[in-house]
């Protein structure tokens, strides 16, 4: 019988220490291996030069080190870089580097495909294949940090979980990846520079609040009217807006962190005054701000960006009620790297 090797990056630092003790070695060997895996990015045991040759061979016989591979990289005229990332089992996800004058942001995927069914999103058309492991999310960040240094001469400054998948449907692994990303002995990024974006899963938002997570929360709202939202995001039927609002109020009470609502205005769908009034009501329930994002067409014509006049009305009315609103332009459109366009056409 062939013995399958274990994924060594699935072990915590303590588990690695215990493993070495069980083998009759010193616990600090576990720390050394952990550092090679998570701080120094070792891809093979052979590279772990402060371990004896025998230990390296032993580890190689019992474990694998899984790593993502940037399979294809596309560069946009605006500096945005899109990566098709191959996972150890051959599946592909996409991740994006978005540079602006003040920051460089990594947009990472959390699942292969997505189980939610937002009608305007390209990823929703791919069936959900599996969740990403914490190391697969971490590796996307490392790869983009390297690209940021190489092509833009600065380290990565921010991370958004706005790539493929619904992060709150893979909550445990997302949290574990953020632990590694923020670990001072690893990448050491501040959780304040990390934003998890969700289409709004009330139960998990409450759990995040209970866990007192330190990263930011963005919610893809797109409509504050149940009938409209259910039309464009059918899962809203099972998780209606009142439940979402309750969860967000709970979040704010526990974390004191303001929420960002992502919102696309579409012609004939949510561009009327009643839509704006409902959004204002929703916003007043919890301290929040609104990010109006540009629609990136996904080739079916059903959804069209609203007229500038409608966007201006949204901005004016929200500001009039003291709600902060920003209008975000899309990046990387020429390489299909913009929000909602990630669908690995090659796969
Ligand atoms: N599942 C998570 C994260 C991935 S989507 C979420 O829903 O938040 C990241 C953002 O892109 C979300 O705000 C989503 O609503 C938005 N989006 C999806 N398709 C889009 C499109 N075609 N154009 C513009 N934004 C889109």
TrEMBL record:
The entry's keywords: 4Fe-4S, Cytoplasm, Disulfide bond, Iron, Iron-sulfur, Metal-binding, Methyltransferase, rRNA processing, S-adenosyl-L-methionine, Transferase, tRNA processing
This protein's encoding gene: rlmN
Name used for this protein in its record: Probable dual-specificity RNA methyltransferase RlmN
Family as reported in the entry's similarity comment: Belongs to the radical SAM superfamily. RlmN family.
InterPro entries attached to this UniProt entry: Aldolase_TIM, Methyltransferase_A, RlmN_N, RNA_MTrfase_RlmN, rRNA_lsu_MTrfase_RlmN/Cfr, rSAM, rSAM_sf
Tagged with keyword Isomerase: no
Needed cofactors: [4Fe-4S] cluster
Pfam families assigned to the protein according to its UniProt record, in alphabetical order: Radical_SAM, RlmN_N
Enzyme class label: transferase
Transmembrane segments: none
Subcellular location: Cytoplasm
GO molecular function, one term: rRNA binding
Residues the entry annotates as binding [4Fe-4S] cluster: 114, 118, 121
Catalyzed reactions per annotation: adenosine(37) in tRNA + 2 reduced [2Fe-2S]-[ferredoxin] + 2 S-adenosyl-L-methionine = 2-methyladenosine(37) in tRNA + 5'-deoxyadenosine + L-methionine + 2 oxidized [2Fe-2S]-[ferredoxin] + S-adenosyl-L-homocysteine; adenosine(2503) in 23S rRNA + 2 reduced [2Fe-2S]-[ferredoxin] + 2 S-adenosyl-L-methionine = 2-methyladenosine(2503) in 23S rRNA + 5'-deoxyadenosine + L-methionine + 2 oxidized [2Fe-2S]-[ferredoxin] + S-adenosyl-L-homocysteine
GO biological process, one term: rRNA base methylation
Phylogenetic placement of the source organism: Bacteria, Pseudomonadati, Bacteroidota, Flavobacteriia, Flavobacteriales
Active site: 94, 339
């Amino acid at each position: 019988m062939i013995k399958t090797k274990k994924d060594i990056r699935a072990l915590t630092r303590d588990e690695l220490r215990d493993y070495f003790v069980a083998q009759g070695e010193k616990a600090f060997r576990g720390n050394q291996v952990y550092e090679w895996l998570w701080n120094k990015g070792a891809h093979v045991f052979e590279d772990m030069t402060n371990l004896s040759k025998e230990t390296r061979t032993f580890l190689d016989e019992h474990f694998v080190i899984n790593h993502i591979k940037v399979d294809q990289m596309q560069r946009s005229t605006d500096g945005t870089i899109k990566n098709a990332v191959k996972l150890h089992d051959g599946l592909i996800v996409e991740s994006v580097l978005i540079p602006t004058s003040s920051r460089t942001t990594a947009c990472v995927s959390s699942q292969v495909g997505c189980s939610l069914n937002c009608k305007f999103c390209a990823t929703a058309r791919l069936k959900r294949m599996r969740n990403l492991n914490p190391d697969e999310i971490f590796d996307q960040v490392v790869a983009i940090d390297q690209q940021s240094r190489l092509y833009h001469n600065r380290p990565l400054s921010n991370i958004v979980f706005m790539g493929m998948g619904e992060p709150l449907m893979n909550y445990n692994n997302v949290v574990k990846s953020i632990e590694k990303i923020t670990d001072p002995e690893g990448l050491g990024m501040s959780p304040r520079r990390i934003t998890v974006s969700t289409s709004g899963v009330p139960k998990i938002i409450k759990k995040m609040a209970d866990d007192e997570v330190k990263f930011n929360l963005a919610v893809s709202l797109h409509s504050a009217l149940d009938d409209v939202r259910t039309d464009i995001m059918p899962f809203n039927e099972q998780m209606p807006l009142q439940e979402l609002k309750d969860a967000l109020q709970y979040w704010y009470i526990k974390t004191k962190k303001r929420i960002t609502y992502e919102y696309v205005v579409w012609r004939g769908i949510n561009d009327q005054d009643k839509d704006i009034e409902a959004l204002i009501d929703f916003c007043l329930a919890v301290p929040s701000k609104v990010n109006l994002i540009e629609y990136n067409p996904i080739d079916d014509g059903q959804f069209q960006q609203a007229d500038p006049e409608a966007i201006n009305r949204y901005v004016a009315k929200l500001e009039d009620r003291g709600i902060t609103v920003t209008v975000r332009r899309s990046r990387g459109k020429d390489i299909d790297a913009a929000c909602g366009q990630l669908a690995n056409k090659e796969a």
